[in-house]
Task: inverse folding
């Protein structure tokens, strides 16, 4: 409940304003200091993935691609004119930490008319 300021003198009103301003300044600085979070130093290198501490399983991924920007589906060890779909997708899986860099990579596709999968 606010007091009735109509009966206050000019000096009393000025004193009350100074008191309220002082209370506002101290409460604002207290709020600012309590809401600051300590800075956590970020390392420039990302943490390595410890694959032994996480459960792993084999997965199958079905994908479709347009071959204009790629040099085929198969992963190639040597340098190629264009990247392969296997190379690009494997790098994406490593960046997302879905697979380890040393993981075995196998690509299979359908080649014969019976629909049998061949490696």
Result:
């Amino acid at each position: 409940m606010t007091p009735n300021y109509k009966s206050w003198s000019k000096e009393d009103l000025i004193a009350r304003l100074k008191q309220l301003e002082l209370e506002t300044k101290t409460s604002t600085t207290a709020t600012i200091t309590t809401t600051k979070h300590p800075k956590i130093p970020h390392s420039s290198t990302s943490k390595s993935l410890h694959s032994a501490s996480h459960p792993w399983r084999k997965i199958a991924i079905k994908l479709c691609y347009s071959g204009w920007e790629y040099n085929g589906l198969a992963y190639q060890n040597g340098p190629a004119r264009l990247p392969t779909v296997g190379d690009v997708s494997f790098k994406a899986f490593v960046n997302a930490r879905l697979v380890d860099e040393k993981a075995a990579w196998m690509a299979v596709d359908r080649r014969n008319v019976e629909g049998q999968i061949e490696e």
